[in-house]
Amino acid sequence: MPPILPEDNTLWWCDPSTEYAFVGFSYEVTDCQSSEELHREFADIRYHFHSRYVRLYGACDREGFYDDIVEAAWDNGLGVHALIWFGFTGGDIWMTRRDALFGALHANPKAKFVTRVVQFGSEPLFDDVLPHAELAAQVELAKANLSDLNIPVTVSELAYGYEERGGAQDVLDAIDSINIHMLPFFDQNATTANQSWPIVLENLAFFVEHGNGKKMYFDENGWPSVTSPDVQPNSPYAVSNIPNEQAYFELLDSKCEYLKAVGGGGIGWFAHIYSDNMEPGYGIYDSSGYLKFPFHPRTNC
After folding, report:
1. For 208-212, what is the mean pLDDT?
2. pLDDT, tens digit, for every residue of 102-140?
3. Residues 6+ apart with CB under 8 A from 101
4. Would the CA dihedral through 26, 27, 29, 30 be positive or negative?
5. How far apart are alpha carbons 167 and 154 in whole angstroms?
6. Beta-bridge partner residues of 57
7. Cα gap 142→115, rounded to integer Å
8. Class of 16-285 per CATH?
9. Which of 49, 228, 296, 298 is most enclosed, with most CB atoms within 10 A?
10. Cα–Cα distances in Å, from 136 out to 15, 27, 170, 184?
11. What is the DSSP string of 239-278?
């Protein structure tokens, strides 16, 4: 990062077409990590795994928390996919979170140099938290609010979330990039991770057909190593264990050239999630802080 902030961020980011392989981690913030922990883990994400981005997941409502995110990201050369978190219990707290995030983005001079995109999520269509027309309107309002900061806006969602709302083309038209939940373990035809590429392609096909050539990311993207009451497959043949979690990311890694060639500038993918302490079974690290398997995916090909 430069010692003096540039005047604006219009020429700040690399071309999105360079982001077509592994780009970073989903990172849950429900624990409201301290500034020290954010710096330590963001440094690991950047320098150990060569990540470009952290994609936030969950919410911390502590005042000033996003400023801590910005500082840790800035100091470690990371961008952030920020999140307006709806949660799973309904209510209007997402509005408070939206306003707090927008306030921080406007007030913190480093924020626009760190925040690559603002997401509405997670899975607001699938969870039916807003009618799709209202969600599209919120995206447009957010784009207007952030236009002077040059920060784009998206929705973090499953293909099925759009499909079950008649395609929700108004949302697809409103968003600046397409941030896709790719979780083939839950498909009705799931078996093992190394056999999941047809499921990935089927979900991707919806966005290729209806996304108007916009840049795409797999953001909530992974395969669980365990099942739990909250992680139950829809196929009796879906296998959840550490070798399958590893195999899914190795599958994506092996498809680097394919992902690079997808229209809109290729597809960048995140690993969901950084640690099992954030979401059991999905972490690259286990709950004791050890890597569950070797993880060194390609960032280019």
Report:
1. 97
2. 999 999 999 999 999 999 988 999 999 999 999 999 999
3. 66, 82, 84, 118
4. positive
5. 16
6. 28
7. 14
8. alpha beta
9. 49
10. 26, 25, 6, 26
11. --SHHHHHHHHHHHHHTHHHHHHSTTT-EEEEES-SBTTT
